[in-house]
C-alpha cells in the first residue's frame, strides 16, 4: 500500500496517537497599561521618579515547558517626570540623548519559572547604544480574562537596578545617584 492509499481513518488514529506539540503563547504589550519607570537619588535629599509613556513589544510564555522570552521597546523621548524642564534636560546629550538614541530596549531569551509562573527574566538592556545584562525579578504575575475587553491578558510587576555610569550616563555624579531602580508594570493581550 502506498502512502497515498492509506485510509483516512488510519491517518486520523495516527494523528491522535502523536503527542500534541503546544506552542508558546504570544502576548502583545498593551501600551496603555505598560509604564517602565525609574527611581534615583536626588542629591541625597529625595528620590526622583520618572516613567516612559510609550512602550511596545512582545512576550512569549510557555509555562508547561518553563520557557519564555521578552522583547520590549521603550520610546526614550516619552520620558515623563511631571516637570517639563526636567524632561527637556533628560532628553539632552548628557542623559538619554534621545535625538541619537530614540529607543531603549530590553530583551530576555530566558525566563525562570517556579510553580508555573515566571519569577525572573535574565535579559539585556540596551541604553545609549550600550548593552548590559540586567536581570529583572518578577514580583507579581497574573493571567486571566480582562473584565472589560473579555480578552485573555497577563500582567506582571518586575524590578531591577542598574548603574547609569555603566551605560555612559555620568552627568551630575555623584550628586544625582548612580544606582537607578527600575520598576516595570506590564500587561499584554494574548494574540
Q: What is the CATH fold-level name?
A: Lipocalin
Mean pLDDT: 90
Cα(first) to Cα(last) distance is 42 Å
CATH superfamily annotation: Lipid/polyisoprenoid-binding, YceI-like
What would CATH call the architecture? Beta Barrel
Largest pleated sheet:
8 strands, antiparallel, barrel
Q: Name the shape in a single word.
A: globular
Structural class category:
mainly beta
Oligomer: single chain
Number of helices: 2
In total, how many beta strands? Answer: 11
Query: What is the alpha-carbon Rg in Å?
Result: 22 Å
Order of helices and strands: HEEEEEEHEEEEE
Integer tally of domains: 1
- Neighbour order of strands in the largest sheet: 1-4-5-7-8-9-10-11
Protein name: Polyisoprenoid-binding protein
Domain Lipid/polyisoprenoid-binding YceI-like: 26-189
Signal peptide: 1-22
Keywords: Signal
Blueprint of the fold:
Elements: H1 8-17, E1 25-29, E2 35-42, E3 46-52, E4 55-62, E5 67-75, E6 79-80, H2 84-90, E7 103-114, E8 117-127, E9 130-145, E10 152-163, E11 176-190
Antiparallel strand pairs: 1-4, 1-11, 2-3, 2-11, 3-6, 4-5, 5-7, 7-8, 8-9, 9-10, 10-11
Pfam families: YceI (PF04264)
Signal peptide: 1-22
Organism: Candidatus Methylocalor cossyra
Structural summary, described in words:
By secondary structure, the protein is mainly beta. It has a single domain, classed as Lipid/polyisoprenoid-binding, YceI-like (Lipocalin), CATH 2.40.128. The protein has helices at 8-17, 84-90; strands at residues 25-29, 35-42, 46-52, 55-62, 67-75, 79-80, 103-114, 117-127, 130-145, 152-163, 176-190. The protein has an 8-stranded antiparallel beta barrel with strand order 1-4-5-7-8-9-10-11.
